[in-house]
Amino acid sequence: MRFFRDFGYDDIPSVGHDMLGSDRQYVEYMRYIEVEGPELEKYRQPFVPQTLFPLRIRTFNYNGEQHPATRKVVLTCPVSCLSLPPAALHKLKLLSGARWSPYPPTDAGVTPEEQEKEGGEGWIKISCEMFPEPLQNSKWCSDKLDLLVMESQRNPTYFLSVPLDTRHIHARERKHPRHTHLRRADFPLEWIPEGLREEARSKREARPLGEGRLPFS
Fold first, then answer.
1. What pLDDT, in 10s, does the model give residues 153-171?
2. pTM here?
3. Is 56-160 assigned to CATH 3.30.160.20?
4. Are 138 and 73 in contact, with CB atoms under 8 Å apart?
């Protein structure tokens, strides 16, 4: 039993039908433009390119090879680019905790010029690898940053008297193999020159005598 008859040269081949279908689709969209275009023009807005994009998203790639780290996403954002009042900026740093740092991560690709221009209020770093796809993890990081910004604007003046905890920054610096510099906070108040004691006392940059020890002791 034959299901297909021989070609009798009474029709165009399949390639011709594909070309006709493409032409019909083109004519259909041209008709949409002619009929509905004038109605859509009233929603037209001029395009203004964004001069500053504060978010930096870093992903991992192993040249196409499967690896668990390829789903991880790291989001870095300068706090000064969030356009928040000073009270909200302080609360945002408090809420961020160890995710906030006065300097950018070394692997974020931030140049010294960008640090001088954008890093006046520090940087926030959020990473995620809970989901199987990098886009899902980047969406999670972006949502968490939106929640931090939204929460920082709720009664921000209530937290102005709360000091900023920077112990995670000092601990990270002490663990660095090239840590050779010392801060005034590493010495007791009595060891600081008299001309600088009042400033150190107001900024809480010194500890009482006999409390703790030097980082190299």
1. 999 888 888 888 888 887 7
2. 0.60
3. yes
4. yes
